[in-house]
Amino acid sequence: MSKVFLLEANKEIDRAKQVVEVGQIIQMEGYSYDRYVVYDITKNQWGIAYKLVNLRTKEFQTADIIRPLKEKFGIGYYYDSENPQFMDSFEVAILLQEAEQQKKAENAEAEQERKRVEEVREIGRKRFAEIFPEDAQAVIVARLQQDDSDRMTDYYAHSTQRTVIIGFSKHKRDLFSEMRKHAPNLEETAYLAEFNEDYEHREKYSMGNGYYLGESKYSGWIIEKVPVYNRERTIEDFAYTAGSEENIHIGKPTATPNKEEEPQTNQPTTESKGGCTLVEYSAKAVAVFGETRAIKDELKAMGGRFNSRLTFNGKNLAGWIFSKSQEQRLACYFGLD
Fold first, then answer.
1. Nearest alpha-carbon partner for 298 in 279, 326, 318
2. Residue ranges per domain, the chain?
3. Helix, strand, coil share (%) of the chain residues, nearest 5
4. Distance in angstroms (rounded) separating the CA atoms of residues 195 and 70
5. What's the mean pLDDT in 5-24?
6. Residue 165: which region, alpha, beta or left (left: phi > 0; alpha: psi -120 to 50)?
């Protein structure tokens, strides 16, 4: 019951056999390479458990397998059987006291955060229930994605930094035209109102990311629909998001200009910077047309999104679309202020 076989090391370990003592220093190999001191040793039906304190972070850990350093193979806890190191019992007691105080402070902080989150959720439940239509079959949301990938190790991941409720739907069908209609409700996603086939992602397959509108699932803003299967469950799911008024941008959806139609306003400001034209593209967006290849990096850094299907003066043109809030910055860049 207490014996285990480590396949990667091709070795059987008897966890009932004690290999280190209280006060002995061991180390982690493969992750942080931190050092620990054993402050207690207990026994259970599976063998021996070693209670550890990290000498650097003062965090508690438990290990049931500690191997000799001379037989190191893979990630794990190791002890030096040739030159074992020990910490004085008084030093261990001081370290343990500091670690317990730190843990107590962390628990108090975690409890305070739990209460704060619950207070926000309570506000959000009421607020979301008030705006949640009885006939809603889906919630349309904008999400700000952060790329957490480490391409050096072929690790690909992303996390959502912010979720904003921008609309509701009376059906569960994933329609990009519907997502585009709600895009102007949030300034940061206004550029997604323009048709761009490259922004339409259909990934409804195993391990896929579903349907979403945006440049990338890994970074930047995207828009997607969240189906409603249970009203109370949906209210609970969006309680924390709705707890902040900044995360609710519900407005009357505006029609998305057809790729063959001219936007409401196309008034060129002037031409500058190698023949580029800055225009007021719509009520919530400005655009840059012309020879932009040489300055594409600067335009992207200013929040621009390239779209090959914009319209200007009745013609289909490729250009860069920006939020209206970037107009002054663009005017300064083109020397128009």
1. 326
2. 3-87, 133-247, 267-333
3. 30, 35, 35
4. 63
5. 82
6. beta
Give how far Cα 26 sits from Cα of 36, 46, 76, 86, 307, Å: 5, 21, 10, 9, 58
Residue identified by tokens 């860069």 is: 320
The pLDDT of residue 48 is 94
Given the structure tokens 């289909």, which residue do they identify? 316
Report pLDDT for 161: 95
Residue 102, both tokens: 């730190």
* C-beta of residue 37 within 8 angstroms of C-beta of residue 97: no
3-87 in CATH: which number?
2.30.30
Residue from 105, 63, 254, 81 nearest 177 by CA: 254
Q: Long-range pairs for 33-40 at CB < 8 Å and ≥24 separation?
A: 36/61, 36/77, 37/87, 37/92, 37/95, 39/92, 39/95, 39/96
Write the CA distances from 208 to 148, 149, 151, integer angstroms: 17, 16, 19
How confident is residue 12, by pLDDT bands cut at 50, 70 and 90? confident
| CA–CA separation, 293 and 320 (whole Å) | 11
| pLDDT, tens digit, 9 for 90 and up, residues 118-150 | 999 999 999 999 999 999 999 999 999 999 888
- Contact between 284 and 182 (Cβ < 8 Å): no
- Give one DSSP letter per residue of 121-145, joined into a string: HHHHHHHHHHHS-TT--EEEEEEEE
Mean pLDDT across 307-317: 78
Q: Report the C-alpha gap between 202 and 169 in whole angstroms.
A: 19
**Matching residue, tokens 């580029």:** 276
The DSSP bridge pattern shows strands 25-29 and 11-14 to be unpaired
Predicted confidence band at 115 (pLDDT cuts at 50, 70, 90)?
very high
Average predicted confidence (pLDDT) for the chain? 87
